[in-house]
Design brief:
Blueprint (H helix, E strand, L loop, with lengths): L1 E4 L5 H13 L3 E6 L4 E6 L17 E5 L19 E3 L2 E3 L5 E5 L6 H14 L3 E3 L17 H14 L3 E4 L6 H7 L2 E4 L7 H8 L5 E4 L6 H13 L5 E5 L17 H8 L4 E3 L1 H5 L2 H14 L3 E5 L17 H22 L1
Helix pairs in contact: 2-3, 2-10, 5-6, 9-10
Length: 339
Amino acid sequence: MIIVMKSQATEKQITDVINWIESVGYKAHPSSGVERTIIGAVGDNRDKAVLKYAESLPGVEKTMPILKPYKLASRESHQGDTIIPVGNLRIGGPEFIVMAGPCAIESEEQLLESAYIVKKGGGHMLRGGAFKPRTSPYSFQGMEEEGLKLLDAARKKTELPTVTEVVSPADVDLVESYADMLQIGARNVQNFALLKKVGQARKPVLLKRGMMTTIEELLMSAEYILSSGNPNVILCERGIRTFETATRNTLDISAVPVLKNLTHLPVVVDPSHAAGNYKYVIPLARAAVAVGADGIIVEVHPEPEKAVSDGAQSLKPEKYYQLMDDIRALAGALRSKAV
């Protein structure tokens, strides 16, 4: 249920309504717009009729049901687009954000060289996996905490905020102590224990769509994080599994405008995992800009042929610099057209 406050409602009236919502067993999620505040009341639907009483409270204009199953992620519950701060960055705002770096952290030298390449090209965030969920148990599983320490050192030297994956609820606190943003990978998009745990974290969460996850299922996974208390969720389209074998996955580029219509959360694209081949990464990244994504997360490696994970889809430095030039040109052209 959404409780819409009157435009002249006082802060005390808003606080009183929030307290009342929680007194009847629901969680209150206020959202302040330019003209008025709306408060989402989320909880067990069996007693939702009691929320109609809110219309008699001082300062309340009306109550409205939230029709979507994803209550907090829906545009019905939040006015405007959510802009998520990560350090000095604002994801979901006018600037197209590029997160780049190696799939896996392999060594201090490899990570630092990658970080300097990312920064030189104008990238905004450094990505790098310390924990690696792999299809084969014999594949490289990541450097774990030692990798996190290297990521933190690279952040301090380059001043690039960092994003890295967390794969277990037991590791959330550890990863959060080092990284600026937590990533939930495609294989864990419906790991509900993990989603609840990162929902209790203080850091933003990058939530990747699963290989066989529908858009509604992705939004319901985001709902787990939001309803657990973390409002800072960024959605990521990274390709889905289809009958096509020419690429690693099939990038569902239409998911970006669909999500933009359904949710207030920022949406980014991962062209690297969609393509599985560096040759297609730049064209797909251009498509992400053109279709209205808020950013991309892309894999960059100083020597992809020596990478221990996903070298085939990683960009060499010169290709990454070309990508950044293309993004700047296209984003600038689209802004000019909008004006």
